[in-house]
């Protein structure tokens, strides 16, 4: 199973890279399935609030497939997908979400705060919009130090209504920072449908229109197709790397799980509720239609029809991904808890 | 006639009752009143119950402007840390506008938020930031610990002609208790003796009241009588009740979920060092969170927060035991 | 001298209203001249930070000439111009700026925080962008209470880079609030030229393009001509009053004085420095060109050429305005200071 | 060799020296470095010295991100209240990210802002909001009162691997004093005895140090010996030096420009009530601002703030005079 991203030699995406992309999408999906199953199989093992990336696979992988080795990814609290693609150990990720000593952050961060700077993933914030500014700051570092890096900044449709979004994009545009802003429009922020809270959406316009406020390119792309995302992001990355400044890409897809696990007070264990489309709005057809356009199914079909992926290869990839994540769960379950006194570490550098 | 209800329900009841009583009261926030089926939307309509984007600065600032011009907004802000992105509206707009106008306007609004969710929410969602709201003249701050207080202080907050920060504790949301029916308004600045006692005065707020009462119960079995006082509002803060209790007991333990220098505990200790010094027979003792952010993993999180055991130990220590 | 705004009976602006507008522009200018002279003639009498509206007269008056009796004006700390037009006592205003007992706010607010709710001027904030949200809230009151009011929200080019601007306009657009946002682009925020800090300006685009982020109308208008401002604002007000929501109007003009009085530490008395165009950038020609397009001169010329204003009438207006403001200064100087113990009043309602 | 210089100049000197020493240090903010003629721009170029829009959330958040990835930003924020619109970056981002990452990253940055401008700036520009920054584990806070401290603490702030809030006092900007040349770094958490004394311990920060020293001088003429301590940094706070002084004097006066419950005074009083209780011969006494916003008019403003007279009175009162 290819973990490290193969190089692209030709202009078009080669077979190896396509298989790699497909594999990463599967790994994200399987990771999130295992996180979700943990709530049922091991109640109480995951605490706090956990947000899943199922549905976002094509968007995440399509975007990150364009990157150079040193480029950074900086998303929000819904952060499981990206480090998987960047090469972070899924064992350590799962152990972190389980609050264990062997976790990526030794149990200090949890699901919302994965960080793996060694793999180009500096860390995340759980407060809406704030990390958009952090990513912009990382782009400032790249510019000042002339590292040649581009920063991939991911955030939600909801987050694009936070002042931090607007202030950051304006500054990035004025300073021509090397950053690509990827607005993941999954059409919901928790219970709220985007047209209830976004003026562009309420008017029937795409959210990428916000780019006009900064006189930068803004495009909307089908986020269920990794190749379309790839194309749009690649263009933006080139622009950024050439010193021409930021772009805004609205990637539209659908989140398959509920926003996060239900919020309860201990000892009542948390569980994942139904998706808000159904639970709050009773829109069963909408949800079914979105599931029918599962980016993994669509991409598998495309790769098969293009002759890139054979049935046995697909089966082999699936099996290895499943085994990898089974190992991750076992590793995490077996890992000890940090000892309490360690809590006072890491307050100051 | 008191009914038995949950803390969360008691708050909701007060909001519904006040909205019924006064048509100037409106209620809005993120992720509420999404559809026409929502009970509050059904009762009060989409004009008075509104869903907002994730725009705390606008949500809070709009409340200020609406309050300046005749409405009484109640804003659901969910977790108090979310307000940090818009803290100017809370600390430097709402409480100052009346004063700067020479008393010409008033700004009656309620910002409602939860805090202290010590259940694995990690570094940015579990904090106690109430210290930032103290010493802000013009601003009142309520911190109810029981369902009855939750109702009575919510009613008081909505009826108050000043900006009020209403902070409810996430860990007490499902706790049940008797709640008076109908009009029930708890005045600001009046502490409540949650348990009378004679050996040691113990002051706590929110979830720490629950922990302190448990500790008091344990200590009672060892023959130690603890008076547990809940200030209920920290701005204004009822120092008199605390000093009077110390006059009786001579000893003071302060329990607080925040780190030491972000605690109400330290403020009260300071007040008593000035106003109750001569009554004190022993140094005051503070039981606060350790000086760390809140970690995710359960054993780490438990370690940094005040516990029943730490409270018991502190009470004994001020008694020289 | 007409103080109360005469009604407009015909579709076009009538003579009376035009004279009224001209008079208000003069009153603003004279008020600011007297404030500024105070720094020289009575050093130390004005404390803190004072911001003048000279240069903005056409924009302020053109906008407010469109209002109905109950509509509210809600600007920023640069707030002297508006209440003059709304009918606030200039005596009390001057006394407030001098920190006196007879001041509009009894000396509690000062220059940055004039408030006169009785004259549809609820109060201002000195913190950039925050009052944009307050004005939006006032529009919410108008909508919920169905008062028919429209809120006139004024703020600077600099303020349009504060998250509060963006968040407020989005909410106003989604809720279709009765408000008109007037972005007073005087091309400077303190020392900073707009193209150094605004992405639209840096790209050579108008700032009204920000309206695209909210799918609302956005226009740019010559703010040195009160009649053009009137037309643009009137259209936006009609839209707002019809329940169609907010508009963004960029009104371009030039501030004639420095941002504010120089910042010093007592006992060094404060003074007004040169305009930043000259002091910081050495752009003397730019400044001279702007002064040559003084909105008061231009409007006087237009009214004269239209036969609306005769030379004697102009002279008579000027004299009466001058006398009015002389009285205001004398009133303010003669007013006693508040007694110290009053400081604890008005903390709570 | 110390040179005589102004407080404002001392800060600027430290920034220039640190930028010369370490090319990772960058400096930006509103209304600075407008043109190529700007001295800092000339020295360090437009990449390292930048002008920003009025976007505190982005300004501060960009600093956090830049610090996470290898720069050491110094951000000029002008007046501390302006930061309230972006308080989350100061209180809930910068100091938490390292901890949440389990120590994998560091966030070395300096937020610089002035405060306490008691010169007619009225309700929203003259406040002391440092209490909001206390008890935030991971965050350090410096409050220099003299030109030498201004330089030494700025150098320390820039070299520190943690987020630092550097608060300078507007009223002391033009004050002159001796400032050591070259490398001069004052460690965090070390209080400075600004004037030794034996009868009463007096603790003050910022401008209040100036006022307290004047009061001490007046009192000396009446034979009262006051020890004036300036903590210099309030996070970490050097409680030991204060308690040791109280051990000697037995009496404690705390002077603070903030309202009582927003003061460092109350926090220190609380600490001493716990750790210095047995040394105290009299109640502590706090001299703070009154519980009002800051009014514009001079007589009103004077009335609400601590003054030399109030300090003298407080010192005498703890001596029973
Ligand atoms: C400032 C702030 N306000 C509110 C929240 C609570 N909150 C957490 S996630 C979320 C929804 C975000 O929606 P979106 O940006 O669309 O991202 P998605 O979850 O859909 O990926 C909200 C409101 C928060 N974390 N921070
Ligand atoms: C949040 C905040 N940041 C900074 C300031 C300092 N400040 C006061 S006025 C001003 C410039 C505003 O410029 P603009 O919005 O263009 O209005 P103008 O003064 O030109 O009318 C600044 C930066 C402030 N008051 N509030
Ligand atoms: Mg979303
Ligand atoms: Mg301007």
The fold-level CATH name of chain A is Rossmann fold
The biggest beta sheet of chain B reads: 7 strands, mixed
The counted number of beta strands of chain A is: 7
The hetero molecules present are:
thiamine diphosphate, magnesium ion
Assign the structural class of chain A, choosing from mainly alpha, mainly beta, alpha/beta, alpha+beta, or little secondary structure.
alpha/beta
CATH superfamily of chain A: Thiamin diphosphate (ThDP)-binding fold, Pyr/PP domains
In N-to-C order, the SSE pattern of chain A is HHEHHHEHEEEHEHEHHHH
Shape of chain B: globular
What percentage of amino acids of chain B are in beta strands? 15-25%
Output the strand order for the largest sheet of chain B: 3-2-4-5-7-6-12
| SSE arrangement of chain B, N to C | EHEHEHEHHEEHEEEEHEEHEHEHH
Features:
heterotetramer, A: 349 residues, Rossmann fold, 5-stranded parallel β-sheet, 12 helices, 7 strands, 42% helix, globular, B: 321 residues, 7-stranded mixed β-sheet, 23% strand, binds thiamine diphosphate, binds magnesium ion
3D architecture notes:
The complex is a heterotetramer, with 2 copies of chain A (349 residues) and 2 copies of chain B (321 residues). Chain A has 349 residues and is an alpha/beta fold. Chain A is 42% helix and 9% strand. Chain A is built from 12 helices and 7 strands. A 5-stranded parallel beta sheet of chain A has the order 1-2-3-7-6, with helices on both faces. In chain A, strands 4-5 form a two-stranded antiparallel ribbon. In chain A, helix 1 crosses helix 2. The two termini of chain A are 38 Å apart. The mean pLDDT of chain A is 96. By secondary structure, chain B is α/β, with parallel strands linked by helices. Chain B has 2 domains: 2-180, 3-Layer(aba) Sandwich (Rossmann fold); 192-318, Rossmann fold, CATH 3.40.50.920. Helix content of chain B is 37%, strand content 23%. In chain B, helix 7 (207-221) links the parallel strand 10 and strand 11 (226-230). Bound molecules: thiamine diphosphate (TPP) (2 copies) and magnesium ion (2 copies).
């Amino acid at each position: 199973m290819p973990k490290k991203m193969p190089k692209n030699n030709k202009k078009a995406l080669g077979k190896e890279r396509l298989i790699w992309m497909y594999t990463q999408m599967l790994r994200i999906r399987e990771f999130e399935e295992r996180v979700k199953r943990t709530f049922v199989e091991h109640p109480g093992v995951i605490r706090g609030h956990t947000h899943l990336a199922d549905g976002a696979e094509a968007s995440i992988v399509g975007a990150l497939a364009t990157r150079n080795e040193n480029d950074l990814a900086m998303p929000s609290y819904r952060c499981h997908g990206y480090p998987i693609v960047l090469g972070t150990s899924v064992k350590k990720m799962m152990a972190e979400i389980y609050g264990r000593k062997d976790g990526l952050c030794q149990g200090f961060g949890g699901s919302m705060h994965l960080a793996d700077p060694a793999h180009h993933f500096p860390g995340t914030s759980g407060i809406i919009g704030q990390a958009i500014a952090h990513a912009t700051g990382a782009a400032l570092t790249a510019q000042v130090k002339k590292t040649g890096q581009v920063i991939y900044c991911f955030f939600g449709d909801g987050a694009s209504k936070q002042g931090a979004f607007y202030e950051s994009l304006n500054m990035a545009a004025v300073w021509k920072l090397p950053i690509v802003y990827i607005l993941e429009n999954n059409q919901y922020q928790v219970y709220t449908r985007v047209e209830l809270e976004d003026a562009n959406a309420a008017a029937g316009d795409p959210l990428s229109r916000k780019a006009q406020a900064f006189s930068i390119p803004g495009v909307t792309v089908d986020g269920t197709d990794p190749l379309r995302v790839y194309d749009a992001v690649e263009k933006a990355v080139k622009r950024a790397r050439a010193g021409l400044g930021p772009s805004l890409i609205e990637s539209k897809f659908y989140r398959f799980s509920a926003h996060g696990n239900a919020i309860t007070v201990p000892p009542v264990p948390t569980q994942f509720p139904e998706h808000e489309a159904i639970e709050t709005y009773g829109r069963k057809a909408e949800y079914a239609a979105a599931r029918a356009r599962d980016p993994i199914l669509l991409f598998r079909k495309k790769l098969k029809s293009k002759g890139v992926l054979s049935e046995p290869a697909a089966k082999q990839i699936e099996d290895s991904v499943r085994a990898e994540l089974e190992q991750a769960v076992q590793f995490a379950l077996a890992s000890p808890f940090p000892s309490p006194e360690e809590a006072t570490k890491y307050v100051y550098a | 006639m008191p009914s038995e209800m949950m803390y969360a329900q008691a708050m909701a009841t007060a909001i519904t009752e006040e909205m019924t009583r006064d048509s100037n009261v409106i209620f809005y926030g993120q992720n509420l009143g999404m559809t026409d089926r929502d009970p509050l939307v059904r009762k009060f309509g989409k004009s008075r119950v509104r869903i907002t984007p994730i725009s705390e600065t606008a949500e809070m600032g709009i409340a200020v402007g609406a309050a300046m011009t005749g409405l009484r907004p109640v804003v659901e802000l969910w977790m108090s840390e979310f307000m940090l992105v818009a803290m100017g509206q809370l600390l430097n707009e709402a409480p100052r506008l009346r004063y700067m106008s020479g008393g010409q306007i008033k700004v009656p609004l309620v910002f409602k938020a939860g805090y202290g969710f010590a259940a694995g929410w990690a570094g940015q969602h579990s904090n106690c930031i109430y210290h930032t709201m103290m010493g802000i003249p013009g601003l009142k701050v309520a911190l109810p610990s029981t369902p009855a207080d939750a109702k009575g202080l919510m009613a008081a907050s909505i009826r108050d002609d000043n900006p009020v920060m209403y902070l409810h504790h996430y860990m007490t949301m499902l706790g049940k208790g008797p709640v008076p029916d109908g009009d029930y308004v708890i005045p600001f600045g009046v502490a409540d003796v949650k348990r009378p006692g004679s050996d040691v005065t113990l002051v706590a707020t929110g979830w720490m009241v629950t922990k302190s009462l448990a500790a008091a119960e344990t200590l009672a079995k060892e023959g130690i009588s603890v008076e547990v006082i809940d200030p209920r509002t920290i701005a204004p803060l009822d120092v008199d009740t605390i000093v009077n209790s110390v006059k009786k007991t001579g000893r003071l333990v302060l329990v607080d979920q925040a780190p030491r220098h972000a605690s109400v505990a330290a403020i009260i200790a300071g007040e008593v060092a000035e106003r109750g010094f001569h009554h004190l027979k022993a140094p005051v003792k503070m039981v606060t969170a350790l000086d760390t952010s809140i970690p995710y993993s359960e054993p780490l999180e438990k370690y940094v927060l005040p516990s029943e055991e730490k409270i018991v130990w502190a009470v004994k220590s001020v008694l020289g035991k």
